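Could you join me in thinking about how sequence relates to backbone shape in a protein? We need material for that, and I hope you will provide a protein of your own picking. Once you have written the record down, we can walk along the chain together:

…
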Amino acid sequence: MLFVGVVLAVAYVAGLRRVRRPWPTSRATSFFVGCAVLVAAGVWPGTGFTAHMAEHVAIGMVAPLLLALGAPITLALQSSGPSTGRTLRLLLRSRAVRVLTHPLVAWLVFGATLVALVFSPVLEWSARNEAVHALVHLHFLLVGSLFAATFIAIDPIPHPLPHGARLLGVLLLVPFHAFVGVALLTARRPLFPSVYPSISDQHSAAGVLWSSGELLTLAMGGIVFARWWAAEQRATARIDRQLAKMLHGEAHRGRMVSCR
């Protein structure tokens, strides 16, 4: 993840240098913080179950949310040349991207990934094999980014959802984290004794997963709600302007009639 974080940061800086219009500082800050989270996860010194779970939370939840808030696809479209821009738009409209960014697909894959990791041999394989560990981290990052991009929806996506449906989809993720957290917390013996033999470490990992999962879900829900509120305010202001224009036109026509 150290390499991925550095590459993403360098690519984003290249986009900022080429973009032809002012770019929001908040977006750039969010993206670079997300890259920093990936770099920190890449040099994470812990080896226990709690440290392993904290890595997955950072890579699969925290970093994707911050990266999505940076609107990297929008930056790429605005900073690229005509031919590259056409290629990116064709890619965004491709069948594979349309399927992967379908809200139901993104939601199911994101929710099922954590459950599949904990209740399958993959977690033990990743603890024993560095290559598998790296692939699992990459999978978490891609799935988390797919979910965040689809439900935060700052970048253009093929299947934009209404704000209410986005908020509902985000909040419905809570049971996934709660289910895995409860399973780890209530187990009377270690679920992975060959690699993580400490039951107290397993309980700590459950606490990290459960609390961080719910906090990040609420944070993402708050972002979706804030964007919903801002969109409603813009729509109201637009309707007010149209109504004022209509009333002004009616008043002008009334004065013309009276003058005649």
In short: The radius of gyration is 23 Å. The chain has one domain: 2-259.
